[in-house]
Backbone:
């Protein structure tokens, strides 16, 4: 009889501890979600914050064009840095963000030969391509290129880092014999 009551007390204590641990985990996730998921949130918001590319290339301002995907780990790593660039330079530079998974942007993906992401293309105010960055980049390199956009003497520069994501083939519109019923 006494051992049964001990087991009940022990079970009650274990349940209480388990509930307490689960509560702490849930509260921690709620409190720190912005910190934990900031880069994912930033990537998702890039499309909403983007200037339309047609407007960007005709409004007589330099353009920062980034090709990205929400599944790309390198894109997630660079998102806070890119967001900081946008906050700092958005008055003087167009910021265009194109998700490579959106078929709407296929013509730009083809035009700028995007096969690794993130890819950042910098254009002068006339729409001339000045720099291309592929993969994870050092903030200083990008800042230097941004500051060089307005210089008269321009030479094209391509900087590729081995740390990038290959674009996954989009098979959403692929047709096969069984897709027609």
Residues:
């Amino acid at each position: 009889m006494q051992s049964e009551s001990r087991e009940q007390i022990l079970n009650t204590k274990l349940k209480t501890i388990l509930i307490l641990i689960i509560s702490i985990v849930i509260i921690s996730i709620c409190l720190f979600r912005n910190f934990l998921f900031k880069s994912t949130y930033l990537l998702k918001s890039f499309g909403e914050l983007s200037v339309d590319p047609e407007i960007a290339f005709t409004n007589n301002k330099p353009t920062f064009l980034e090709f990205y995907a929400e599944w790309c780990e390198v894109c997630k790593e660079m998102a806070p840095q890119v967001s900081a660039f946008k906050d700092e330079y958005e008055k003087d530079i167009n910021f265009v963000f194109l998700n490579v998974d959106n078929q709407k942007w296929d013509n730009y993906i083809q035009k700028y030969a995007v096969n690794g992401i993130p890819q950042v293309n910098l254009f002068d105010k006339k729409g001339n391509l000045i720099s291309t960055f592929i993969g994870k980049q050092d903030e200083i390199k990008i800042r230097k290129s941004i500051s060089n956009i307005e210089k008269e003497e321009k030479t094209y520069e391509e900087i590729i880092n081995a740390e990038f994501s290959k674009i996954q083939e989009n098979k959403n519109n692929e047709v096969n014999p069984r897709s027609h019923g």
Confidence is low (pLDDT under 50) at residues 171-181. Helices lie at 2-36, 38-49, 53-56, 73-89, 106-111, 139-148.
